[in-house]
Amino acid sequence: QLQLVESGGGLVQPGGSLKLSCAASGFSLDGYAIGWFRQAPGKEREGVSYISRNGVSTDYVDSVKGRFTISRDNAKNTCYLQMNSLKPEDTAVYYCAPVPMLFALDVTYEYENWGQGTQVTVSS
């Protein structure tokens, strides 16, 4: 199975920033499109952002457009999610996963190998 490890979460005040990392282990990340997802208590996991294999195509859920930026560095085998102007409603556990090409963020992703995720808490 593919193994991805999320990191970079933490506690931040509203309006602050965090940069999440998604590191691949045991395989080359450049063979896969990557999605970032998040799940808050009592809510379903939702797709947040998508980036194609070569980084040319990106997509964001409406609630984070203009605030979040997804990127990747295939030489470092890592994908990133830069989060600016954070809001309390961004509080969730964030996960990354390989996704199909042209993945639709509004479709439930039946993935079987979710990692531990990284906790993002936005609070004053």
Helix content: under 10%
Secondary-structure-derived class: mainly beta
Bulk shape: globular
**Major beta-sheet overview:** 6 strands, mixed
Strand ordering within the main sheet: 2-10-9-4-5-6
Number of helices: 0
Termini gap: 39 Å
Walk me through what this model shows.
The chain is mainly beta and 124 residues long. It is built from no helices and 10 strands. It has strands spanning 3-7, 10-12, 18-25, 33-39, 46-51, 58-60, 68-73, 78-83, 92-99, 118-122. A 6-stranded mixed β-sheet has the order 2-10-9-4-5-6, with no helix packed on it. The protein has a 4-stranded antiparallel β-sheet with strand order 1-3-8-7, with no helix packed on it. It is globular, with a radius of gyration of 13 Å. It starts with a strand and ends with a strand. 31% of the residues are buried. The mean pLDDT is 95.
Key traits:
6-stranded mixed β-sheet; 10 strands; mainly beta; 4-stranded antiparallel β-sheet; globular; 124 residues
Task: Indicate the topology.
Layout: E1 3-7, E2 10-12, E3 18-25, E4 33-39, E5 46-51, E6 58-60, E7 68-73, E8 78-83, E9 92-99, E10 118-122
Parallel strand pairs: 2-10
Antiparallel strand pairs: 1-3, 3-8, 4-5, 4-9, 5-6, 7-8, 9-10
